[in-house]
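Take our chain:
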Amino acid sequence: MLSCLRVSFKKISFKIIFFVLVVSLHAQAHEQKHGAYYLMNPRPVSKSVKKETAATQDKLFSEADSKLISQTSSGEIMIYMDRVEEPPTTKSTIELQGIKDPLEGFNRFSFLINDQLFRWIIKPTGEVYGFIIPVIIRKGIKNIAYNAAAPVRILNNLFQMKFVRSGSELLRFLVNTTLGIGGIFDVASTVCLKQAAEEKGPKTCLKKYNEDFGQTLGKYGFGTGFYMFLPLLGPTTVRDGFGQIFDTFLDPATYITGASIFIRFNNQSMHLEDYQRLTGMTIDPYALIRDMYVRLRKREIKQ
């Protein structure tokens, strides 16, 4: 039995090492072909390039169209353009916010692995999945997962003493669980949209208030820590990483084998083109995603 396990472990280890080597070789070939696309070994950037990058970022921020702009290969970090109002400057957000990136070499390597996983595995698989499963069903699955994760939002709003918002999330959960048939339909948001269109009637809209434990820690003055980009999981910080561990215990999907991975994959299948659109419009996609993530998290904590 032990010998079989040793053989299996050796085979898995060899496959992982082989995959990393292939990814590294592919990155080198890609960099030679497209010199501006530097992920592993960033070179000094001229002022003209910095201006070009800043202009690209300004364009991305101005396109407030609620499109996903940061999506990891198997994990999902939801960052929406309409949630960031202030345009970035030529100076890195990391520098502006005082957040360090001491593991930049490792982070860029992790970003490269996620990038290749997305392009060669997640995207093709997601396209097949999207062709078979209609959008309405995928949206229903997304709604069920979001509704089931209500304890995360309810409790973290409560921890931050945002009692009205916590109550709104609780009512949203009750309405969508009952009238929305287990959360398949987001009835609470439908009422909000209808009232916004008619601009009349009592304001009984139940808004979404997304809060997590990372934001709760930030609310009470806990430092961000340094920036990390983890393989498969994507961008985070020391504080947010700890917060995500806490939140997983509140999310029912954690206790169903494979549910979290499937939910992320299902949600990502509806935003496959957005990731390539983002990375194709900037000279350094790693830095752009890092800066946007840091800026968004700081804004969310202030709200």
Remarks:
- Confidence is low (pLDDT under 50) at residues 4-10, 12-47, 59-91.
- Residues 2-33 form the longest helix (32 residues).
- The two ends are 55 Å apart (CA to CA).
- Strands lie at 227-230, 234-237.
